[in-house]
Write a sequence for this structure.
């Protein structure tokens, strides 16, 4: 009798310890996920009635969440997407969730300079205002654009560079207005080598994961330097610009990677990555937050301005990159 009791007691204690351990793990996991991973929310109350915004790559991921939020605030939202088919589904979704009919699709392929020019032409002809340009679209895959540029360099940098320049006059006329460039923390490992900027042949890493990551990082460093130089050129106007890291987000960005990598990444993204809604918060902060105009040209993450390495705010490199980009995009 006594023996059984003692047995039950120790099983009971073991059970309590077990439950306590599980509780602590779940608790820490919950706090980790909701405080650290989730990050800050954009808490700007800014309304956008009568304002027009462009969000590139807004048929999925961070872009569609950004578009929904801006539509809710009353903006006229232009979904600038490359695929009509994919954009049509998004159009219905943004209208429904944004509770707005002021949402339109305009075709834009950032991998084609011709498409960028024709988008800008159509936009400027049909839309009287532009208050916010959100350069969100991005890609992670090797290859060539229609113009023969490196795919990531072309789509992530040259396309948005040309688009922004073609729309700059309209932004100035509508000031105060803003340009927001979705860069990445990956820019930290990027470098600007003007000899291989567009070819990346010098790397000799082929199509490997390391090579792709490097080219992606370089293109994101271009985003940060572009923002730095743009802010300088916009001094004295009512237009400000910002770039940012959205966090690590569960999106379609890795869609072209190997199925092996996708399998490895699944549990990591499930636990450590933000969802696209959370991923849109820093973009929204840069687009909407009152009183950040003096931070034009700077880099944000988790809705907070951050310092970047010297290479990401190098005046000479930023200026040269601008000039090279003008040439490659056919602006000069
Ligand atoms: N996910 C992350 O962890 C993370 C981290 C740091 C930075 N970012 C940046 O965040 C931005 C948004 O990415 P995401 O994570 O939301 O990825 P995503 O789900 O893959 O969305 C990317 C968007 O860009 C569009 N796009 C791709 N190539 C284009 C082209 N040639 N012309 C026009 N649009 C094009 C895509 O259109 P289709 O659907 O038609 O391909 C899609 O709408 C990117 O700039 C990315 O570099 C993401
Ligand atoms: C984001 O900011 C919040 C609030 O300041 C903080 O609790 C969280 O740890 C930060 N997350 C990241 C990823 O920096």
């Amino acid at each position: 009798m006594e023996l059984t009791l003692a047995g039950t007691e120790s099983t009971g204690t073991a059970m309590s310890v077990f439950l306590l351990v599980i509780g602590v793990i779940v608790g820490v996991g919950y706090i980790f996920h909701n405080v650290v991973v989730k990050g800050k929310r954009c808490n700007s109350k800014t309304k956008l009635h009568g304002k027009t915004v462009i969000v590139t790559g807004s048929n999925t991921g961070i872009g569609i969440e950004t578009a929904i939020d801006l539509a809710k605030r009353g903006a006229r939202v232009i979904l600038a997407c490359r695929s009509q088919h994919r954009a049509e589904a998004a159009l219905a979704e943004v209208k429904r969730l944004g509770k707005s009919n002021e949402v339109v699709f305009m075709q834009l392929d950032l991998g084609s300079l011709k498409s960028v020019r024709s988008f800008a032409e159509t936009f400027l002809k049909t839309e009287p205002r532009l208050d916010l340009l959100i350069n969100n679209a991005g890609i992670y895959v090797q290859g060539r654009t229609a113009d023969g540029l490196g795919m990531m360099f072309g789509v992530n940098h040259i396309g948005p560079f040309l688009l922004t320049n073609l729309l700059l006059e309209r932004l100035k006329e509508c000031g105060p207005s803003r340009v927001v460039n979705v860069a990445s923390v990956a820019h930290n490992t990027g470098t600007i080598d003007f000899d291989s900027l567009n070819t990346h042949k010098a790397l000799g890493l082929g199509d490997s994961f390391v090579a792709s990551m490097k080219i992606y990082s370089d293109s994101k460093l271009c985003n940060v330097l572009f923002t730095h130089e743009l802010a300088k050129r916009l001094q004295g106007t009512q237009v400000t610009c910002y770039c940012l890291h959205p966090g690590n987000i569960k999106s379609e960005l890795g869609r072209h990677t190997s199925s092996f990598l996708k399998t490895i990444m699944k549990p990591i993204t499930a636990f450590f990555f933000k969802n696209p809604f959370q991923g849109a918060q820093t973009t929204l902060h840069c687009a909407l937050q009152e009183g950040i105009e003096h931070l034009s040209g700077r880099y944000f993450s988790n809705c907070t301005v951050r310092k970047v390495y010297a290479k990401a705010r190098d005046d000479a490199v930023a200026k040269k990159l601008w000039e090279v980009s003008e040439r490659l995009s056919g602006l000069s």
Summary: The longest strand covers residues 239-245. The CA atoms of residues 42 and 284 lie 6 Å apart.
